[in-house]
Specification:
The chain contains ten helices and six strands, in the order E-E-H-E-H-H-E-H-H-E-H-H-E-H-H-H. The chain is α+β, with helices and mostly antiparallel strands. It folds into two domains: about 140 residues, Spore Coat Polysaccharide Biosynthesis Protein SpsA, Chain A (Alpha-Beta Complex), CATH 3.90.550.10; about 80 residues, no CATH class. The strands form two sheets. The protein has a four-stranded mixed β-sheet with strand order 1-4-3-5. Strands 2-6 form a two-stranded antiparallel sheet. Helix 4 packs across helix 5. The chain starts with about 30 loop residues before the first strand and ends in a 5-residue tail after the last helix. The relative contact order is 0.16. The mean pLDDT is about 95. InterPro entries: Glyco_trans_8, Nucleotide-diphossugar_trans.
C-alpha cells in the first residue's frame, strides 16, 4: 500500500483489501461467484442465493445499517450522513454491506479493479476500507439482496429475527462469535467454533484469537453499548424496528 494511503484503524486488517486483487486468479471456468466474509454463520438454506444468476455488470449485495440509524439526530448519524455523501451515496438504502456478495467473475474483475484504484486515490474517504470503495464505484450497479442472507449485528441489536428469519448471520463489528460473550450474541455460537478446533487441532496454529485484554475490553464495550441503547435512549429500538419493517415492505429484492 502506498505511504500516502490511509487505512483507518479498526478491527478490520489491511489484508481485507486482498480480495480486490484476486479476480484474475480465479479459474475462468468459474463464471458465477458468491463471496462470504469469514465472520458469518450459515444457519439456513442459501440455495436461492447461490442459484441466482446475477446479470453481467451488476453486483448483488444487502443494504447495510445506515438506513436504520441515519434518521437519528446525534453525532454518529451526522458522521454517517457525511460519509455517505463523501462517497457519492445519496440514499442510505443504496449503501450495501460487502460481507456477502454475488456477481460474475468478469464483473468482479472489473469492479474490484475500479474499487482498488478508488481506494488508493481516495483512501481518506474510505471509512470502511474496501467496502467504501466498492460502494463508491458501484452506484447504480447493485441489486438488492434480502437481509435474510446478510443479517448484520444491527438487526440482532433490534431483535429483528422475527421479521427477517436469517439464513446467514454476519457478525459485524468487533464482537466476533468465536470469543465474544457480550450482547447481542451472548456467546451463542462459541461452541460451534470450539467443536471445529477440536476436530481440526491444526487450526490452533493460526492467530485468530485476540489477547485476553482485547476480549475483555470488547465484551465490556459491547455490553455498555447495549445498555446505553436500551436505558438511555429506549425509544430508538422500536423506531429502528419500524424503519426495518418499512424497508422490508417497500423493497423488491432480487433474492
Amino acid at each position: 500500500m502506498p505511504d500516502e494511503a490511509v487505512f483507518r484503524k479498526t478491527h478490520v486488517p489491511p489484508s481485507a483489501l486482498a480480495r480486490l486483487t484476486v479476480g484474475r486468479n480465479i479459474p475462468e471456468h468459474y463464471k458465477h461467484l458468491t463471496y462470504f466474509d469469514g465472520d458469518i454463520q450459515i444457519v439456513g438454506s442459501i440455495l436461492d442465493l447461490i442459484s441466482f444468476d446475477v446479470p453481467e455488470g451488476l453486483i448483488l449485495g444487502a443494504t447495510d445499517r445506515p438506513y436504520v440509524k441515519i434518521p437519528e439526530n446525534d453525532a454518529s448519524a451526522r458522521t454517517t450522513r457525511d460519509y455517505l455523501e463523501c462517497i457519492g451515496i445519496k440514499d442510505p438504502r443504496d449503501y450495501f454491506n460487502s460481507g456477502v456478495l454475488s456477481t460474475t467473475r468478469d464483473t468482479w474483475i472489473s469492479l474490484s479493479d475500479k474499487a482498488l484504484r478508488y481506494f488508493l486515490q481516495h483512501s481518506d474517504r474510505c471509512r470502511f476500507h474496501d467496502q467504501s470503495a466498492l460502494n463508491a464505484i458501484s452506484v447504480g450497479h447493485r441489486l438488492a439482496l434480502s437481509p435474510r442472507y446478510n443479517y448484520v449485528s444491527t438487526y440482532a441489536e433490534c431483535e429483528a429475527e422475527d421479521m427477517i428469519s436469517p439464513a446467514v448471520i454476519h457478525f459485524t463489528g468487533a464482537q466476533k462469535p468465536w470469543f465474544a460473550d457480550s450482547r447481542p450474541w451472548r456467546g451463542r455460537f462459541k461452541e460451534s467454533y470450539a467443536a471445529i478446533l477440536q476436530a481440526h487441532p491444526m487450526l490452533r496454529d493460526f492467530p485468530f484469537m485476540p489477547d485476553a485484554e482485547h476480549m475483555e475490553r470488547t465484551d465490556r464495550d459491547g455490553e455498555r453499548a447495549w445498555k446505553l441503547l436500551r436505558l438511555i435512549t429506549p425509544w430508538r429500538v422500536p423506531l429502528r424496528r419500524r424503519r426495518i419493517r418499512r424497508y422490508l415492505r417497500e423493497t423488491q429484492f432480487a433474492v
